[in-house]
Structure formats: C-alpha cells, structure tokens
Amino acid sequence: MWKPPRLIPHDTRIDFLRFHKFTFVLSIVMVLCSIGLVMTKGLNFGIDFAGGIVMEVKSPEPSADLSVMRTDLNNLGLGEVSLQEFGAPDVVLIRIPQQEGGEAATQQAVTKVQEKLGSAWEYRRTETVGPKVGSELIESAALAFLLAMGGIMAYIWFRYEWNYGVNALIALVHDCVTTVGLFALTGMEFNLTTVAAVLTIAGYSVNDTVVVFDRIRFELRRYKTMAVRDVINLALNTTLSRTTVTSGLTLLSVLALAIWGGEAMRGFAVALIWGIVIGTYSTLFMATPLLLYANLRPGAKAKAEAADAPSA
C-alpha cells in the first residue's frame, strides 16, 4: 500500500534542548538590540502615525506609471512621497508627509502635486491626517497590542496553567519586539498595516506554541516517570513535521505576496516573513525550553526528597 512521503522522518530524535542556554542568550540579545534600535534610531512612522496628506487620483491612461510618478513627485521637495495602486491599475493613492507651516503649507503641497500631474488627471479625494490624530492612532495601536497580549496570556493560563501562559507571553513579546526592531534597523515605513502584521504574528506564534504545549501535556500524562527534559524533546520531535509543513507553506504564500504584492504590501509581507521565522524559532528554542524551569511536576521533587530521606 502506497504511503505519502514524510517531510520529517517518523523516528526523528533531535535534542532541541541541548543548546537552550545559548538560544536564551541569543534571544535576550535580539530583544535588547531591538529595544536599543527603537530608542536610538527610532521608527520610520508612516502617514498614519506621523500625519500627512492622502490623495486618490485617477490616470487618464489605462494604467498609471508609478515609477515615473514617483520620480516626478519626489522632485517637488515635499519629502518622500509613496504611491500605490488603489483598486485598479489607473487609480493611485498618493501619500505625502506632514508639511511644516500648517494649513497653508498643506494646501501648497496639494497644488504642487496637481500642477505636476496636470488637469487630465481626476482628483477624487484629498485627506489630511494631523499630528494629533497620528498620536491618537499610536496610543490606540499600543492599546490594541497590550490587550491582545493580555487576552492571549489569559486564554493560555485558563486553558493550561500559569507557567504555560507566562512562557507563551515571553515568546510573544520576543517575537513582536524583534519584529519592531527589524523595522527600526531597516528603516521601512511603520504604519497601521505593520501593526496589523505584528498582531498577526502574535496570533500565528501562539498557535504554533499551543500545539507543542498541548503535546507536552499529553506526553506528561502518558509517561509519568520520564524526565521532563525527555518529554519536552519527545513532544517537539512528534510535532516537528506539523511545525515545518505549516510554517513552510505559510512562508511560501507570504513570499509570493512580498515579490508580487507591490510596494504597498511589502512592509506587511516582510513583517510576516520575519514573524514566521522568528515565531517558529521561539516555539522550538525559547517558549518550550523555558518549561524546564516551570516545575511541570510540582509533586515530583517532594516525592524524591521523601524517598531519599533516611528512615527513623
């Protein structure tokens, strides 16, 4: 009878915990470097957070040449202008950074763009995001992140135990902080789409972690006398095929989005690519190895001490 090929052999026995102290140090270094980059270099906030002008325009041609438009508009001295197709090849969304000088400078920037493009273009809408709105969006994004982290931890705490919940939260913070650090390092635009990507990464990461945690709990009940270290390694190896297939297929989809999704989706796709990689890493080498120190069998130590104690 034909059997489908397995990506990971059934009898795989990888010692994932062998270098767990090294991976702990590596994770701490990545988190600290990410925080340092955000504090020193800062993030390249998009118009959503920094404020600016958004214009929706329609080309007189069947499709707009974004490369030519980008060159022309960036030569107007308005800062880095970003463009993206918006629903159709001939509809373009223009994002202009916040202009110094108030309402007059904003109107002047809009006029420059209109003069450069010409009267043949259709100007469908023009919106301005002020710095106050941007700061409110930053606060809302931070609140959404904190509520998501708290909700995930509460679920895992309720579904499993507090030690599982704490470990999952540590891994989530690790994944999200390093993702933000990646944007600080590369200087890619950080906007509301990026926040959505970070929250998506959190959900993806905890899903991967919970599968392994569930397996560990099952194996702990199944092998009551096996060492916790061996149980964790067994659970990681038995779920390795699922982890690699799920992560690999998701990564292929996101890579396609990064390559062919256009400039507007690139930041979102890059964040997800990093999130898939770092999320898989944190499950295998951070969240799960931390369970070694979580006292998964609270009565085992007391029983061992009682058995070793001299009889009266």
UniProtKB/TrEMBL annotation:
GO terms for biological process: intracellular protein transmembrane transport; protein targeting; protein transport by the Sec complex. Residues 111-294 form the Protein export membrane protein SecD/SecF C-terminal domain. Coiled coil: none annotated. It is found in: Cell membrane. The keyword Ribosomal protein does not apply. Pfam families: Sec_GG, SecD_SecF_C. The chain crosses the membrane at residues 21-39, 137-158, 165-186, 192-213, 234-260, 272-293. Its main location: membrane. GO terms for molecular function: protein-transporting ATPase activity. The keyword Transcription does not apply. GO terms for cellular component: plasma membrane. Keywords: Cell membrane, Membrane, Protein transport, Translocation, Transmembrane, Transmembrane helix, Transport. SUPFAM superfamilies: Multidrug efflux transporter AcrB transmembrane domain. It is a multi-pass membrane protein. Belongs to the SecD/SecF family. SecF subfamily. Forms a complex with SecD. Part of the essential Sec protein translocation apparatus which comprises SecA, SecYEG and auxiliary proteins SecDF-YajC and YidC. Part of the Sec protein translocase complex. Interacts with the SecYEG preprotein conducting channel. SecDF uses the proton motive force (PMF) to complete protein translocation after the ATP-dependent function of SecA. This is Protein-export membrane protein SecF. The lineage of its organism: Bacteria, Pseudomonadati, Pseudomonadota, Alphaproteobacteria, Rhodospirillales.
